[in-house]
Amino acid sequence: MQQEILDYVDSLAADLQHWRRDLHHYAESGWLEFRTATLVAAELHRLGWQLQMGREVISAEHRMGLPDAATLQREEQRAIEQGALTEWLPHFSGGFCGLVATLETGRPGPVVAFRVDMDALDLNERLQDDHRPFRDGFASCNAGMMHACGHDGHTTIGIGLARTLMTFAAQLNGTLKIIFQPAEEGTRGAKAMVEAGVVDEVDFFGAIHIGTGVPAGELVCGCDSFMATTKLDVDFHGVASHAGGRPEEGRNALLAAAQATLALHTLTQHSGGSARVNVGVLRAGSGRNVVADRASMKVETRGGSNQVNDDIFARTQQVIAGAAAMYDVEHHITLMGSARSSQPTAPWVRFIRQQAAQIAQITSRVDSKNQAAGSEDATWMMERVKARGGQASYLIFGCDLSAGHHNEKFDFDESVMATAIKTLTLLALNIDQYREEEK
């Protein structure tokens, strides 16, 4: 039966390619995945999965980095024009573009959940013949939105996994969940789903990614190098005045922002581990002869542990408040994204490594790997699962890439999608074997 399942996944290759290329062509950025979410919902409903959607699985008050109402409305209309299924759209309207699919087998067993993300990046794709998506006619048709991180592949993996698990449901036990998450880029979406309770009953959890510099054929069974992060926008509000005639009547927001920028970049020392602060954007002023009454900054902090990041973020807020007070201006901080640092659960990682040994396309299996110091908001889900007594890990499936992630020429070897589906299917199929071994 196990070989039959692996052969079945191989038979899906053409369908997987079609799904991936369609999603790539109609790339949608975070909280704007209207078309993507409706197509996923329709397909999983057709397969017989139970669905929870939109506000059922996303806490409105915990969404971060949400586009303004005009953008949400405009992009929803754009999605309709590009084939979003209007019968499903009300579930996702307003940017609630997440869903959770559940398969209850009716037989005793744990709750096993896998998370895939759906959003594209705010990036223009390369439109030249040296880029395969353009050459083969599936480059993004949406300006400023591109799948340059592989989330089109992740969503396709979720769809293929749903087909496979439902086809072989008679061989499964317990409850299976597939979480389709919006707005991973900028670490904006996972916390809102966690606060809606989507992983509260989960016993075993896995999030996935493809690529990330991991060589083709290698599986990282438990990536443990993600840094905790907090992302924030800062607005300073002062008083404008004539810079030559009445400078003393002004309150200079530009100077407050500049002072904060210089001070923030001194905060990167922490005895608890690695720490980062970056002011990536600073805008201010309206003219050379006007004391600037407005300034804005885009800032992020990171830490090698949750405690380090929390400490750096607290000091960041103090620095910003101090700079505002120094120049007698008001300030406002808006939280735009966050993620945690999370260590995978060792027994679950061992089981992942064991199951992956049965897949011919995986030629190397490692528990962890030194990665660049990035962040990933699936860590919110991992931490909640572990806090409630479950086990969690983050899997990276290596594959060949045409360019690095977040690059206008990004593309990947599509065969990795079947490899990921096989791995996740075996984890679900053989979960009782894990439980027996751990007794």
Automatic annotation (TrEMBL):
<dbReference type="Pfam" id="PF07687">
    <property type="entry name" value="M20_dimer"/>
</dbReference>
<dbReference type="GO" id="GO:0005737">
    <property type="term" value="C:cytoplasm"/>
</dbReference>
<dbReference type="InterPro" id="IPR002933">
    <property type="entry name" value="Peptidase_M20"/>
</dbReference>
<protein>
    <submittedName>
        <fullName>Peptidase M20</fullName>
    </submittedName>
</protein>
<dbReference type="InterPro" id="IPR036264">
    <property type="entry name" value="Bact_exopeptidase_dim_dom"/>
</dbReference>
<feature type="binding site">
    <location>
        <position position="406"/>
    </location>
    <ligand>
        <name>Mn(2+)</name>
    </ligand>
</feature>
<dbReference type="GO" id="GO:0046657">
    <property type="term" value="P:folic acid catabolic process"/>
</dbReference>
<dbReference type="InterPro" id="IPR017439">
    <property type="entry name" value="Amidohydrolase"/>
</dbReference>
<dbReference type="GO" id="GO:0046872">
    <property type="term" value="F:metal ion binding"/>
</dbReference>
<dbReference type="InterPro" id="IPR011650">
    <property type="entry name" value="Peptidase_M20_dimer"/>
</dbReference>
<feature type="domain" description="Peptidase M20 dimerisation">
    <location>
        <begin position="233"/>
        <end position="322"/>
    </location>
</feature>
<dbReference type="InterPro" id="IPR052030">
    <property type="entry name" value="Peptidase_M20/M20A_hydrolases"/>
</dbReference>
<feature type="binding site">
    <location>
        <position position="209"/>
    </location>
    <ligand>
        <name>Mn(2+)</name>
    </ligand>
</feature>
<feature type="binding site">
    <location>
        <position position="185"/>
    </location>
    <ligand>
        <name>Mn(2+)</name>
    </ligand>
</feature>
<dbReference type="GO" id="GO:0016805">
    <property type="term" value="F:dipeptidase activity"/>
</dbReference>
<keyword id="KW-0378">Hydrolase</keyword>
<feature type="binding site">
    <location>
        <position position="149"/>
    </location>
    <ligand>
        <name>Mn(2+)</name>
    </ligand>
</feature>
<feature type="binding site">
    <location>
        <position position="151"/>
    </location>
    <ligand>
        <name>Mn(2+)</name>
    </ligand>
</feature>
<dbReference type="Pfam" id="PF01546">
    <property type="entry name" value="Peptidase_M20"/>
</dbReference>
<keyword id="KW-0479">Metal-binding</keyword>
<dbReference type="GO" id="GO:0071713">
    <property type="term" value="F:para-aminobenzoyl-glutamate hydrolase activity"/>
</dbReference>
<keyword id="KW-0464">Manganese</keyword>
